[in-house]
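User:
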Amino acid sequence: MRRRSTVVVLALLTASTALALDMPTRKAGLWELKMEFAGRNLPTQLMQQCTDASSDKFMTLNFGGSADRNCQKQDVRSNGGTITVDSVCTFGDSVTTSHAVVSGDFNSAYTVQVNSTRQGGRPMPGAAPNGETHMTIAAKWLGPCATGQRPGDVMMGGGMKMNVLDMQKMGGPPGRP
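Assistant: Predicted structure:
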């Protein structure tokens, strides 16, 4: 369980660092994210996020906020509904070069393709050191958040639930490496 949550957080940090700039706000409600990792010994990860405009902006800024501090290059291009982001970021002893392509609609469904090469640093779970990572995130809007859910809630497999807004109040913003 702990390994799975670590993998999900690392995956979100990788994707969000690549996507931190100029991302549209998603439609408020419950979003399902399906993360698939090609070439890694990791199962598909499913999670749900309950969002509103404020919590969505907070997650983008804080998961991707480390990009402002750690990325030497961030090129964002938008062309006909497709957003392309190329970045080079340093985290500790490792350098990650990423190419991300975002397509779809932030009101119903979108896809993020992230190809990264990581050099140096400690190995990530399920990945060979200094290797390539190919991740696809398929996101779809499910409808309003369920009863008992509130904006900022992130639900992962095995019943694990956290609220990123609460984490921030406790001094642990999700973008902190």
